[in-house]
Model the fold of this input.
Amino acid sequence: MAELIGLIVAFPLVGFLLIGLGGRRLGSEVRIGALASAAVGASFAVGVWLLVELLGRPAESRTLVLRLYPWITAGDFTAELAWRFDQLSALFVLIVTGVGFLIHVYAIGYMHGDRSFARFFAYLNLFIFMMLNLVLGDNLLVTFLGWEGVGLASYLLIGFWWDQQFEGVRIRWTGEAAMKAFVVNRIGDFGMLVAMFLLVLYAGTLRYDEIAGAVMAGTVIPPHIITLIALGLFLGCTGKSAQIPLAVWLPDAMAGPTPVSALIHAATMVTSGIFLISRMNVLFAASPDAMAVVAAVGIATAFFAATIGLVQTDIKKVLAYSTVSQLGYMFTALGVGAFTAGVFHVMTHAFFKALLFLGAGSVIHALHHEQNIERMGGLARYMPRTHWTFLVAALAIAGIFPLSGFFSKDEILWNAFIYGGPWLWAIGVVAAFCTAFYMFRLYFLVFHNSERFDHHHQPHESPAVMTIPFVVLAVLSAVGGFLGIPEALGGAAIPNVLEHWLEPIFAPGVAMLHRGSMHASHTLEYVLMGISLVIALAGIGLARAFYYRESTRPAALAERFRRVYRLLWHKYFLDEVYYALVVDPIYILSVRVLWRITDVGIVDGAVNGIARVVGDIGERVRRLQTGYAQSYAVLMMAGILVVVWYLASHTGGK
Amino acid sequence: MGHVLLMSVLFLPLVGALALVAVPRERIALHRWTSLVIAVATFLLSLPLFWLVDQTRSDFQLVVATPWIASLDAGFRIGLDGMSLLLVLLTTFTMPIAIGASIGIITKREKEYYVMMLLLETAMIGVFVALDMFLFYVFWELILIPMYFIIGIWGGQDRIYAAVKFFLYTIVGSLLMLIAIIWLGIYAQSATGQFTTDVIKLRELAPSIPFETQRWLFAAFALSFAIKVPIFPLHTWLPDAHVQAPTAGSVILAGILLKMGTYGLIRFNLDFFPQSAIAFAPLLGTLAVIGIIYGALVAMVQPDMKKLVAYSSVSHLGFVVLGIASMTNEGIQGAILQMVNHGLSTGMLFLCVGVLYERRHTREIAEYGGIARVMPHFAVLFALAMLASVGLPGLNGFVGEFLTLLGGFRSPYLDSWAYSIVSATGVIVAAVYLLWMFQRVMYGPLTNPANEGLRDLTVQERWTLVPIVLLLVWIGVYPRPFLRASAASTSAIVQKVLNHSVPQKVTEVHLPPPAIRSIDQTVKVPTLTERP
Done:
């Protein structure tokens, strides 16, 4: 049975190789697109098959492992190329291939007519392949292979239209945005590398089950080392999942084609950090300090990005900051030990955020690459299907009952209140208000309000190949939350499916937290639920008041709080600060001090100086030179003999 | 059978060179194709060596030994172990590519050029197979001659300056080595009554040289090798030599010549003088770390592509030296693999720069931009070389870097994690300088009109680049055969060093499980004795 895991991984790889090597020779766009989609669809099908297989087993033996061969072996160290299909990776595999399949299909329409159509789908398949390695890895090194691999795919796809302009801080071309993404992620990967070395050093292994065993044994790894490892891994997570301090790359990643933003920079790759912490939940749970850092970074990012999202005018950048913010929620959940809640939100977020991006893509497509929401408006009547599905997703992310986002976000806020305290909850609620506001600001400015776009071309609804994925995702965004109905609402009658499913994965981590059974009253939970629902409705209401029709109110508000507005508009100047404090000093140091002074000046200066002195001496003794090779040879032999004689007479006695 | 094969691998290029001498210089095609065929044949002949060498053994195999200068006990002694096997294969693999990339590119004095290339091949293989100090030295110096001419005749504008600088730097180092070699022979004489240059005898004798003297010998060898590697601050010949050398010259220089330095460090410095190696490890490790960071930062700001790749070599070789200085199995095996990796990926980067240079006759990054539009196939291969060099998992560079850093981390001789942690930041800078170069050369708009009509890869260029790609992927995905080859000889050296770490009752010392070492523990070696 485990051999089938190989198939899951193999299909997209074969797709990548076929399309990458075959290119246009494969035939029409539809054939290439269909091949790529089929590869991902096939992986999804095998994933479902294996899921059914797991369901047929008792909860404690729902793990399949396929070991291929020892990948890197030297000395005592060994890491296998092996994949693990269990409750956690099953869920991620299905999200990745399921949402991935829909986005592949959508892209057939979106990328129609692009001159690098085949290259695009080759990269997408490569991404899926690497992402599957990431989530299926049986050890940290295979996950790292996928981790860097998705980084590569992301780099290639952000820079897909590498001669197009893109505006960002010190970024003029899409290729520069791609490079930024890769380099910022590398900073995170540095943390992961160090964490891996520490694990090898102390636990002697990179296998997930053995690491968990070593942590649970209690004595193998000293506590402060566990914290160091966890923080190293978390640095990697802040890179891949765009959290403070490495959040700066994701908004610029919007330089890529919109299906890429939907798949990689919203639904799947950016949730890798959540996956990793979930996979290593025992290790993280063993370090209260690391957990606190995760929660603090998560909630800070959730707030920081949500506030930036309030004022941005690029449709994709609003969604990008929204993604950063939602990822912050997930980390908050993990940080307070609510692992299931974090993973739950990964799933629902994948549905509605992918849908939002695809809808945005549909709008951008209809308006001939217009991305500024100030030049949109009134599109609801031109694009009904895009409009209705977008609305569902917007309601879901705002957390309106009974759409999926309500359940997952509420579970996070509830856990934040119980285990993190009222403050954590309060910041989360404020961010939730911002979320509802910016999302409906976007919605009203795009689909309602006055028509501010260039009427040169009539906007048109996208073709079915693009809108069918909308419908599927809209349904999932609507009902996806029912997989995790809280006990307070469902009681004993309706079980929390997701929690039961993931229980064997997270039980050891939760046990590590040493929590007594928490008897929080249902009344409190209802009250908090009510508050967040009211807050979300308030955000929507305010957005409606501001943006449903043309109004001077937003401009007046921006003028009144000009400084705050400027701060948010410039994204808290984080990019500028990094350039001023890190990038520029290193660059100037490298040019002026290291290269010009040290290398050319001191080292080479010394070498050339010696050469000059020797040359001068040589000039004086030139008359000794006869030009006959024999005399040189004689001199050289004589010299060697002198040396030998000297050494022999001085050391022979020893 | 194996001995004959090894002899033919060593001497076939020389025979080819001699044959070419007899061919009139007008017959250009004959020169080109003969040298290529010879190089390919040498490669094919060398392949069976991989199976003929028993990789589970740590001693030298396929040994050929004949007396040469009887009074000095200098002999013609050659042989292979797992480490030299890999480097010989790297050499025989690289040479056909280097020669193939020269055909049609080198247009003056072609006869001499191909003679020099073949001569160089024999000399390089000779360095890796020599089991006699005297023979080693002969091959080591022999390399200087063809390389000097390859840079000095077929190089760029400032070729004479670069060639002389290369020559002088190297000769200074090798003279020190010569003195050390003679000293070793004399020591052997005092110990056994017979002067010798036999490596197999010396590696048994040398470790017992008193530390006070041994460390000077270590220093003499290390200095010579450090210049070759090059280790900071002895690296300034490298950018000049690379920039001035013709493409094939750079490929050989980066691909093989630099490895002679790191090879020598393992073969002689660690194996002959383990006690000194322990004492020098922190110094070597520190220089390695400086090289990694310094090389990367200086590479980042180079306006010339070739100089950028040259400085990146300083950085990459730093990882190799770190692995060697760690003197752990992971570190040294990683270092050996990284030698091969660097030869492949940096060699390929030089070929890529050469591809551009042939079209535009400039290496200034600012002259390019948007090349991916006109040369899409080239863009793919260039990107692969770049990614391998960046150390992306799945390609070869990652495996070597990971192991060398891991070695540095768990080394009992490097007294701090700082070596590896600081070095690991080098992977960030590596991404910066390579991706930035790629961005400026390949991506962006095609603004320079001179670049508009550039032709994509020729058949010849494909044939030189694609074989390397196959190896980049192979080593990245399935490095086992390469790692296995060096395992036995590495662990023998590691054990030898360990045995000399504490002279008394070493054999009972069991390396403590890493878990016991605490973070603030700064001096690690003494703890080995504290824990019997």
Q: What stands out?
A: The first helix of chain A runs from residue 3 to 22. Residues 336 and 419 of chain A are 6 Å apart (CA to CA).
